[in-house]
Amino acid sequence: MTSPVNVDVKLGVNKFNVDEDSPHIILKTDPDKQALEVL
């Protein structure tokens, strides 16, 4: 028989590995104001 799962503990596990040295999203220093209005 398996032990019961504590939902709070299960959801609290960090499943994502963060790579702070090489981000996959790069922010522009001077964004296009008109393009930002669309968002």
UniProtKB/TrEMBL annotation:
Entry protein name: Ferredoxin family protein
Organism: Salmonella enterica subsp. enterica serovar Schwarzengrund
